[in-house]
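User: Hi! I have a protein structure encoded as tokens and I'd like to know what sequence might fold into it. I'm fairly new to this, so please keep things simple.
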């Protein structure tokens, strides 16, 4: 599946060549942050619902319902966003930046 890995120009082998995944890391972080924010915003509805349901036990139930609803949205949003950001970043690394590093020689080169 990863047969797109180019050969190192120094040792003429692809065995130790890895994709430099800068954009992938950035994409994961950015995607996670944006996803968490979006998830939290989207979960305000869920939080309200949770608060309403929690209101059966007034006071504590309202707070717990609101927090757990918002937190669930935040976490779900974070993981969804991080996954999407990771995939987008990987595509950017692989097809746009195309920077590789040979772990045997320690050099970086563009494919
Ligand atoms: Zn090499």
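Assistant: Happy to help. Inverse folding works backwards from shape to sequence: for each of the 111 positions I chose a residue that suits the local structure. Here it is:
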């Amino acid at each position: 599946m990863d047969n797109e890995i180019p050969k190192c120009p120094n040792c003429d082998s692809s065995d130790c060549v890895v994709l430099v995944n800068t954009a992938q890391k950035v994409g994961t972080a950015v995607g996670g942050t944006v996803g968490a924010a979006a998830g939290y915003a989207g979960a305000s509805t869920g939080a309200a619902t949770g608060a309403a349901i929690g209101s059966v036990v007034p006071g504590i139930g309202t707070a717990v319902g609101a927090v757990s609803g918002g937190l669930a949205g935040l976490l779900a949003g974070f993981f969804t966003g991080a996954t999407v950001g990771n995939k987008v970043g990987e595509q950017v690394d692989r097809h746009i930046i195309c920077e590789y590093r040979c772990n045997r020689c320690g050099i970086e080169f563009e494919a």
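A useful reference point when you look it over: Strands lie at 17-19, 99-102, 107-110. Feel free to ask if any position seems puzzling.
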